[in-house]
Amino acid sequence: MATLLRIDSSASGENSKSRQLANEFVENWLAKNPGGKVVVRDVDANPLPHFTSETLGALFTPEENRTAEQKAIVAIGDELISEIEAADVVTVSAPMYNFGIPSTLKSYFDYIARAGRTFQYTETGPVGLLNKDAYVFVASGSFLAETPMDHQVPYLNTFLGFVGITVKETFIAGGQALGEPGEESFNKAKAKIASAA
């Protein structure tokens, strides 16, 4: 049975255009994988603690020396990593907030980036270990894709590649604060999804 891990991050709930694009993809994926399982990780509805000195201290403390509090901190990342390791395909939906991704999604990435588990350092540089495909759904108020102000899509591609996840396709709904141009952009992205799932 194939498993799709869906990661959502918009604070706009069902009004979110990035979530709506992900909805379309998941619906098509389930139609093509009728026995498939969808696991939802909504980092807005269930935000993760931000990385602090306590987080790093717990991770760098040998397992046998960790306090109960440190074990609880490490367990957060363990759960997230096991979840993504078990998935066959991953979707990430993200709005653009102030030129980048939501801090809730950045926190998620901080927890799943773990040396020796999701990536490893080699003589030729870091190598990702997750070996999965992903589809990315993004939205923004204006049209910033492929401009110097876009720190959303390039960051997502960089991070996912770093942990061994190949972005097969990115669906971009720009101009969502601009009325009709935004609607056209959204509908164009939605139309592309039908052939991608």
From TrEMBL:
It catalyses: 2 a quinone + NADH + H(+) = 2 a 1,4-benzosemiquinone + NAD(+); N,N-dimethyl-1,4-phenylenediamine + anthranilate + 2 NAD(+) = 2-(4-dimethylaminophenyl)diazenylbenzoate + 2 NADH + 2 H(+). Residues 3-194 form the Flavodoxin-like fold domain. Gene3D superfamilies: 3.40.50.360. FMN binds at residues 10, 16-18, 96-99. Its EC number is 1.6.5.-, 1.7.1.17. Coiled coil: none annotated. Binds 1 FMN per subunit. It is an enzyme of class 1 (oxidoreductase). The keyword Zinc does not apply. Keywords: Flavoprotein, FMN, NAD, Oxidoreductase. InterPro entries: Flavodoxin_fold, Flavoprotein-like_sf, FMN-dep_NADH:Q_OxRdtase_AzoR1, NADH:quinone_OxRdtase_FMN_depd. Its cofactor is FMN. Belongs to the azoreductase type 1 family. Quinone reductase that provides resistance to thiol-specific stress caused by electrophilic quinones. Homodimer. This is FMN dependent NADH:quinone oxidoreductase.
